[in-house]
Amino acid sequence: MEKVPRVGVAVFLLRGKTVLLGLRRNSIGDSTYALPGGHLEFGESFEECGARELKEETGLDIEKIEFLTVTNKVFKESPKPSHYVTIFLRAALSDPLQDLQNLEPDKCSGLGWYDWDNLPKPLFWPLEEMVQSGFNPFPSQTD
Ligand SMILES: Nc1nc2c([nH]c(=O)n2[C@H]2C[C@H](O)[C@@H](COP(=O)(O)OP(=O)(O)OP(=O)(O)O)O2)c(=O)[nH]1
Ligand SMILES: [Mg+2]
């Protein structure tokens, strides 16, 4: 593939004090816990991409989708180095009683809700860096 930066979209799907994470099966970040998400497709808004990726990967419908932050990272560990500008969104479940399904088991070996104060290890390194820097995806009290 041509050496160009690509756009990733990752979603902090929040439920109570927990966030949805999946154990990645991918040449980038294999066997680390990451947010659901994927590649921005031609013509999509960030919000459309986040909702589509959530549906494809987990079967979940999401709402209240908001932009949080953006990162610019080069992944040198993959067989072919790749470069992503990644848009981070937060969202809530449309219906809190929806079933969580691992619909892409070849890309993810398990999905679960994890307490923000007790995240699993190892986290996908860009996510680990965000956590280490004090980033918090939950709305502040004044919101
Ligand atoms: N899913 C996800 N991607 C992330 C995170 N942080 C981060 O920089 N990215 C970047 C690097 C990923 O390779 C890129 C695209 O996401 P992905 O790797 O899950 O892509 P995917 O296979 O689901 O893509 P697709 O073909 O279904 O569109 O976004 C994260 O926490 N979760
Ligand atoms: Mg994905």
TrEMBL record:
<dbReference type="GO" id="GO:0005829">
    <property type="term" value="C:cytosol"/>
</dbReference>
<protein>
    <recommendedName>
        <fullName>Nudix hydrolase domain-containing protein</fullName>
    </recommendedName>
</protein>
<dbReference type="GO" id="GO:0035539">
    <property type="term" value="F:8-oxo-7,8-dihydrodeoxyguanosine triphosphate pyrophosphatase activity"/>
</dbReference>
<dbReference type="InterPro" id="IPR020476">
    <property type="entry name" value="Nudix_hydrolase"/>
</dbReference>
<dbReference type="InterPro" id="IPR000086">
    <property type="entry name" value="NUDIX_hydrolase_dom"/>
</dbReference>
<keyword id="KW-0378">Hydrolase</keyword>
<dbReference type="Pfam" id="PF00293">
    <property type="entry name" value="NUDIX"/>
</dbReference>
<feature type="domain" description="Nudix hydrolase">
    <location>
        <begin position="4"/>
        <end position="137"/>
    </location>
</feature>
<dbReference type="InterPro" id="IPR015797">
    <property type="entry name" value="NUDIX_hydrolase-like_dom_sf"/>
</dbReference>
<dbReference type="GO" id="GO:0006203">
    <property type="term" value="P:dGTP catabolic process"/>
</dbReference>
